[in-house]
């Protein structure tokens, strides 16, 4: 009977494809929007992820994220270095600046100053050039967002910038995860950064720390906080802080939540309507089957099989659509590094199951209510 | 066959219409024998559809008892009654109610598939039945590729494929011209009437009354005539 149920459904191509489209559209909307949402949120932690070697970030007690930081006096570095269990500690500066390109355009940028000696604070990989270029005068390394935005037609290597009235020369391109706002980032040595960024007395944004063997990051965090009075966060905690900051301070969760809810509602509407029409068109056949001697249990399994088939194909198409979307935009720096966390297809699957359970149940009610005797009327 | 194929005793059926209760059948007592082509005749609203529905176990009577081949069918549980219908009753509906997206053979095989038979085996037996009805060459066609008469034969094949003991036909000739109608009746007599099988036909088609072995006339929910021929005043 399951075979007959499937044939009943696929034999009506308009309704079959309508149902598949409804599920695929819902899955696409839910999966794609959740994927963008999660990846955008993770951009809040990009500043942390780009510095892979630091186990602990130390900052002023009021600092919250890599982008919302209050500068500390340079003595903070020495305080941290004096804490037992600190293998190494380097200065890290993050500040905003304006650059004027040779065409006269003005662009807001983030300047990141990394440790002069070790270059800790740079992204792990380079797209073009080597990290050694920072030893040349006035050198900066631009990230790939900056390359696309400021130099879309040619390589930026060798280009001169007017950075806060200072001369800067681009000598490399870093392979960095873009920030939440996709701001152009220029990496330079800490000593250079102090020149590029207009100063106040305190300029040190963070102290990046490596832990000694035999110590957990959390133990080191506790020690640093106890002995220096500064705020310290493990890499994971500070990444989470960046994500939480976006959740708490932007309307993004609400906006994406509304879109995901709309995806669910549209799915219920399209699938519910089409399923009801399909059942209504076949009510005589279902009535005949009941009269012949097909049990309500078998009818339930038939409708469940129809819903299952539609769900399987629609869900597969929706997830494939999301994969296609991510793949198609992967070359765009805005979507760089976007991926689909395994939980998201699972959430979509639950949503699709709910849509089909709800609409299938509504449609099934009509079939079960149909009296076999109605076939004689 | 010792007793009647179908026996109804005091069958009454009421329907609610708003605040009113309408009694459609008034204590029907009748016996239907196997091996006969029994016609149930009456005007629209006479209660013949209600009576046939009750006799084949798809509509509960308000009062009374119905025995089909010795089984009090409304004494059965819901599941047992469904199973009883599946094993013992074949239906031919006025609108045929064929499933439009499966071919003639699969339509005819539905009762066997519902009984749990392997689909391919069921199809083989359905094709054999279609051949018996002279439309074996149409077995692979969808219902909308068949003429009305051919669809009727597929419906007959579906009603008979599982060799039921009771065959119920609702207005089998209503949509056919006189010649086709008589051909269908000839066919039904040939394949549906047997010593151990009862066949009841609900009809008001006076072109085929002469083909009945027995005619039961229903008026206002009561049997007013029982005989080989229609009464003079009809």
Number of helices of chain A: 12
Order of helices and strands of chain A: HHHEHEEEEHEEEHEHEHHHHH
Low-confidence stretches of chain A: none
Biggest β-sheet of chain B, characterized? 6 strands, mixed
CA(first)-CA(last) distance of chain A: 25 Å
What is the tally of beta strands of chain A?
Answer: 10
Helix content of chain B: 25-40%
The helix/strand order of chain B is: EEEHEEHEHHHHEHEEE
Structural class by secondary-structure content of chain B: alpha/beta
Largest interface comes to: A-B, 27 and 33 residues
* Shape field of chain B: globular
Q: Give, in spatial order, the strands making up the sheet with the most strands of chain B.
A: 6-7-8-3-9-10
Q: Terminal Cα separation of chain B, in Å?
A: 33 Å
Flag low-confidence runs of chain B.
none
Taking all Cα atoms into account, the compactness measure Rg of chain A is 29 Å
| Main structural class of chain A | alpha+beta
Quaternary structure state of the chains depicted: heterodimer
Indicate the mean pLDDT of chain B: 86
Please state roughly what percent of the residues of chain B sit in beta strands, choosing from under 5%, 5-15%, 15-25%, 25-35%, 35-45% or over 45%: 25-35%
The tally of strands of chain B reads 10
Helix content of chain A: 40-55%
Transmembrane segments (chain A): 16-41, 256-279, 309-330, 342-364
Protein name (chain A): ABC transporter permease
Domain ABC3 transporter permease C-terminal (chain A): 259-372
Subcellular location (chain A): Cell membrane
Account of the 3D structure:
The complex is a heterodimer of chains A (377) and B (234). Chain A is an alpha+beta fold. Chain A has 12 helices and 10 strands. Chain A has a 6-stranded mixed beta barrel. In chain B, helix 7 (178-192) links the parallel strand 7 and strand 8. In chain B, the strands form 2 sheets. Chain B has a 6-stranded mixed sheet with strand order 6-7-8-3-9-10. In chain B, helix 6 packs parallel to helix 7 (178-192). Chain B has 234 residues and is α/β, with parallel strands linked by helices. The mean pLDDT of chain B is 86. At the A-B interface, helix 1 and helix 10 of A face helix 1, helix 2 and helix 4 of B.
């Amino acid at each position: 009977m399951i075979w007959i149920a499937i044939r009943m459904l696929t034999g009506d191509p308009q309704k079959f494809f309508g149902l598949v489209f409804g599920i695929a559209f819902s899955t696409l909307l839910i999966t794609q929007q959740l994927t963008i949402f999660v990846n955008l949120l993770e951009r809040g932690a990009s500043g942390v992820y780009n510095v892979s070697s630091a186990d602990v970030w130390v900052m002023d007690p009021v600092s919250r994220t890599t982008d919302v930081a209050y500068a500390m006096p340079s003595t903070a570095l020495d305080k941290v270095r004096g804490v037992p269990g600190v293998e190494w500690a380097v200065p890290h500066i993050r500040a905003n600046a304006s650059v004027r390109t040779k065409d006269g355009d003005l662009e807001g940028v983030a300047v990141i100053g990394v440790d002069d000696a070790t270059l800790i604070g740079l992204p792990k990989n380079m797209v073009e050039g080597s990290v050694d270029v920072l030893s040349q005068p006035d050198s900066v390394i631009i990230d790939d967002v900056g390359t696309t935005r400021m130099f879309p037609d040619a390589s930026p290597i060798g280009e001169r910038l007017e950075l806060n009235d200072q001369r800067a020369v681009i000598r490399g391109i870093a392979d960095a995860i873009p920030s939440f706002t996709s701001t152009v980032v220029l990496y330079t040595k800490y000593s250079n950064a102090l020149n590029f960024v207009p100063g106040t007395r305190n300029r040190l944004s963070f102290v990046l720390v490596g832990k000694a063997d035999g110590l957990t990051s959390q133990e080191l965090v506790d020690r640093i906080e106890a002995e220096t009075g500064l705020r310290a966060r493990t890499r994971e905690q500070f990444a989470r802080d960046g994500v939480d900051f976006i959740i708490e301070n932007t309307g993004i969760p609400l906006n994406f939540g509304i879109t995901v809810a709309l995806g669910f509602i549209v799915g219920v509407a399209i699938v519910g309507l089409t399923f009801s029409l399909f059942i209504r068109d076949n009510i005589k056949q279902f009535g005949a089957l009941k009269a012949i001697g097909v049990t309500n249990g078998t009818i339930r399994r038939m409708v469940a099989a129809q819903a299952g088939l539609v769900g399987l194909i629609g869900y597969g198409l929706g997830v494939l659509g999301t994969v296609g979307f991510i793949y198609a935009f992967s070359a765009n720096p805005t979507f760089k590094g976007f991926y689909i966390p395994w939980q998201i297809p699972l959430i979509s699957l639950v949503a699709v199951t709910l849509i089909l359970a709800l609409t299938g149940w509504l449609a099934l009610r009509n079939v079960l209510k149909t009296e076999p005797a109605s076939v004689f009327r | 066959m010792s007793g009647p194929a179908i026996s109804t005793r005091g069958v009454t059926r009421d329907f609610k219409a708003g605040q009113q209760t309408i009694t459609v059948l008034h204590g029907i007592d009748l016996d239907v024998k196997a091996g006969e082509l029994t016609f149930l005749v009456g005007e629209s609203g006479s209660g013949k559809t209600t009576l046939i529905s009750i006799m084949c176990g798809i509509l509960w009577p308000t009062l009374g008892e119905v025995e089909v081949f010795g089984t009090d069918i409304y004494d059965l549980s819901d599941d047992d009654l469904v199973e009883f219908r599946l094993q013992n009753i074949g239906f031919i509906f006025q609108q045929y109610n064929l499933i439009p997206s499966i071919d003639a053979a699969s339509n005819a095989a539905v009762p066997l598939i519902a009984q749990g038979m392997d689909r391919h085996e069921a199809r083989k037996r359905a094709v054999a039945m279609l051949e018996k009805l002279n439309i074996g060459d149409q077995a692979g066609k969808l219902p909308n590729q068949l003429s009305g008469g051919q669809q009727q034969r597929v419906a007959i094949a579906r009603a008979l494929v599982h060799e039921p003991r009771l065959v119920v036909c609702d207005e089998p000739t209503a949509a056919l011209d006189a010649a086709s109608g008589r051909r269908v009746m000839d066919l039904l007599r040939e394949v549906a009437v047997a010593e151990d099988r009862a066949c009841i036909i609900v009809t008001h088609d006076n072109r085929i009354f002469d083909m009945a072995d027995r005619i039961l006339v229903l008026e206002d929910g009561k049997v007013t005539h029982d005989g080989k021929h229609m009464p003079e005043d009809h």
